[in-house]
Amino acid sequence: MSRRIQQDFIDLISYFENYDLSTVLSEEKFKENAKCIHRKLYSFLVLSGELEYQRIFEGTHDAYKKYFNEIGSDLILAFFCWVSGAYKPAELQLRSSIENFIKTFIYNEDHTIISNKNVYEIFEIATNSNIFSPPICLKHLNSLKMQYSTLCAFVHSSSEKLFQNNALSLLPRYDNTLACEFCANFQGVLNSMLSISYYTFYDNIFHMHVENRELFLQGLLKKDKVEIYKNKLK
């Protein structure tokens, strides 16, 4: 028995010694997905930096700023896990970003939201809040709720998400199907986050430096930009 454990440990050390992303990085589909993820992630980070620069967090409870920053942290960590082939933690971090996003946007209406651990109750509070009351925001909130339910498949280990326990199969490695699935989930989540942010911080976005404003807007879908712009002109 000890020989089996020793051999498994040797295999594990060998895995880490030979861990290399160069093969994955040469995959055209991987680079295509990475470019899509990075485009939307960068858009959100530009917004976060600009809002801090415009001092919108000043005069508010420190938790507001911390939670807004935590959304970016969740998204970056999800991206890092995805690049490494760790798809389950990538999906879990993406799920966490949704929870923190909802809490952040409700926070100014209800400071107690940050202590609420019931995510579906948080969504219910969000549905009835002023911040998500505009039809555009409510539509994207419902989209985030659906995305959250999809991401829960990993948490609750639905049968199609279970991994086979053999050799080193549980350790991170590139899988094209799972990589594409995460990319689609990430884009869906960010489409809604960026659209809600655009509507909510519309005036702040048009006080950005023109280059930063364009960098933010490039992360949104054209149809969402048009819909929000027309709605704001009413």
List the helices and strands and how they pair.
Elements: H1 2-17, H2 22-25, H3 28-53, H4 62-83, H5 87-107, H6 119-127, H7 135-155, H8 176-200, H9 202-205, H10 210-217, H11 222-233
Outline of the structure:
By secondary structure, the protein is mainly alpha-helical.
Descriptive terms for the model:
mainly alpha; single chain; 234 residues
Give an overview in words.
With 234 residues, this protein is an all-alpha fold. The chain has one domain. Helix 3 packs parallel to helix 8 and helix 7 runs antiparallel to helix 8. The longest helix has 26 residues. The chain is globular, with a radius of gyration of 20 Å. The N and C termini lie far apart (74 Å). The mean pLDDT is 89.
Assess the beta-strand content as a share of residues: under 5%
Number of strands: 0
Structural class estimated from helices and strands: mainly alpha
Work out the count of structural domains.
1
